[in-house]
Amino acid sequence: MQTTFPRLLRDHAKQRPRAPAMREKAYGIWQTTSWGEMLSLVRALACGLHEAGLRRGEHLVVIGANRPRLYATMLAAQSLGAIAVPLYQDAVAGECVFPINNAEVRLCVVEDQEQVDKMLEIRAQCPQLTRIWYDDPRGLRNYDQPGLQSMDMLAEAGRAFERAHPGFFDAEVDAGSPEDVAAMFFTSGTTGNPKGVVHLHRTLLDRANAGARFDKLGPHDEVLAYLPPAWVGQNIFSYAQWLVTGYVVNCPESSGTVSIDMKEVGPTYYFAPPRVFESLLTSVMIRMEDAGAFKRRMFHAFMDLARRVGPDLMDGKPVGALDRLKYRLGDWLVYGPLRNNLGMSRVRVAYTAGEAIGPDLFSFYRSIGVNLKQLYGSTETAVFVCLQPDNEARADTVGVPCEGVEIKLSDTGEILVRSRGLLKEYYKNPQATAEVLDAEGWYHTSDAGFIDASGHLKIIDRVKDVGRLKGGAHDGAMFAPKYVENKLKFFSHIKEVVAFGDGRDRVCVMLNIDFDAVGNWAERRNLPYAGYTDLAGKPEVYELMQGCVEQVNADLSRDERLAGSQISRFLVLHKELDADDGELTRTNKVRRGFIGEKYGVLVDALYADKREQFIETQVKFEDGRTGSVSATLQIRDAKTFVPVKAAA
């Protein structure tokens, strides 16, 4: 796509200046920003940033939730030929030091007091960081720090500059090229420092356009922007595709109001990782268990029908007239109200990605009339590599290569991608760039997978994580930890899993319970508990977990390649894995190596056939304080099954 983000904004503002571009909920009321108003704001901020010293090719850090003025800031930087660098708003201060120093950032724009405090805390480590502007002034009235100002002051300075130089902004936008660097996204850093993924206007807009054409997106669509803008997926869905299609982006008031705001907005195009779809379903099932007997019977009866015929109706397959009539009645009584309660009554296309989604969870949404599909991509590929056509959505694949993408498999089974959306480079890291981009333009994804008979891509695990068992009854058997972890996470009572086994004689796992789901399960059984640690250690909860583990073992026994990956022993961790404690990335991926070291005493206990193990763990609270959590954890053996031989 031969244009730039600021030029697209200018086009929308010229063609339909009064049409809504973004909405933001503030103090319970939705505030609308039109395309014309957005351009006016971007113009003022760009002129203000220029006067403050931002120049072409420099980096500007933006930290905060999805807010119209922060989106405008990124557009303002790009209008000047500068590079927007969004960082995760929930990152602790220390995590911001490397990206800011790596990108030599002098200027940053943040959302509120929390983010200002972080920037002031690290200033000594980032001496080049001279200017900080904030959007929300609450709590900042008495702050008196050099270089700290409100965005209102930045915009006012920009308007004054614009009055003195009326043609400056448009000249800067016209000087921009699709080959200019538009943004840099830092990877989650599962090992070592994060890497800055450099993307051009062309690469981001090409992939945004390919996805928009695939699902026929246009100005009539509405999205809810609630995931971190620093994550490339959110950036594509509510920034790049927003400017490509001209649809309306809605920003919730806070993370705590997302479900309410979603019902009010009624998005037509929706993205969420599997854990969000799982959480929504869990909340529904919890409420349904508390409903009256008649409502429960009606719900389960119609859901049985939906599971049987709903996916076929969604895929356009033939369904009997009587079943169609029953489904229509179920839609009136159950499915329609349920979609409305989930905020999905208008969803035309819904995507999930990032982790595998359970087949039951996937079919649940499709059975009630939500067009849930999967996609495959990464930060380095600007998201869109594979997409599922409407009538080919399956839980066990991630779709077919989309427009402009080639896929092939290496001799080791690694997925290689060639696309118009590939990264330019890893910033200041030519060695890492050379490791993933070869001379023929193939990007090495580090994912292991294969293409099935229908042309759909299936993901097994990360190439580096696929290992082998050593010794014991399954010596030499393949071990795919993520595959095992995901099968366990398909259960609504399990939130996180860490599997070990490479180079060992058997597979052992550590589990995190889903506190809400298991808490509700315990309350319905009159099982008292005093917090997460107490609940996680209950014998009844261990029995519940054991049932899940053994069901997964039974499933694995039927997979000829992975039957040796059945779980021999497990324990339930005494605390939830947390990004603030370094156990998860900011995109909620398990840092398996870090956890293996941190909880080495538990790993040793699992493989030493101990029945219990005491552990004390330091934790970090949201306000920066530290404390400790200790417990004596039970360790259980799990039943394994004789592998089922494939029929001759």
TrEMBL record:
<keyword id="KW-0436">Ligase</keyword>
<protein>
    <submittedName>
        <fullName>AMP-dependent synthetase and ligase</fullName>
    </submittedName>
</protein>
<dbReference type="InterPro" id="IPR020845">
    <property type="entry name" value="AMP-binding_CS"/>
</dbReference>
<dbReference type="GO" id="GO:0005524">
    <property type="term" value="F:ATP binding"/>
</dbReference>
<dbReference type="GO" id="GO:0016020">
    <property type="term" value="C:membrane"/>
</dbReference>
<dbReference type="Pfam" id="PF00501">
    <property type="entry name" value="AMP-binding"/>
</dbReference>
<feature type="domain" description="AMP-dependent synthetase/ligase">
    <location>
        <begin position="10"/>
        <end position="427"/>
    </location>
</feature>
<keyword id="KW-0067">ATP-binding</keyword>
<dbReference type="InterPro" id="IPR000873">
    <property type="entry name" value="AMP-dep_synth/lig_dom"/>
</dbReference>
<keyword id="KW-0547">Nucleotide-binding</keyword>
<dbReference type="GO" id="GO:0004467">
    <property type="term" value="F:long-chain fatty acid-CoA ligase activity"/>
</dbReference>
<dbReference type="InterPro" id="IPR042099">
    <property type="entry name" value="ANL_N_sf"/>
</dbReference>
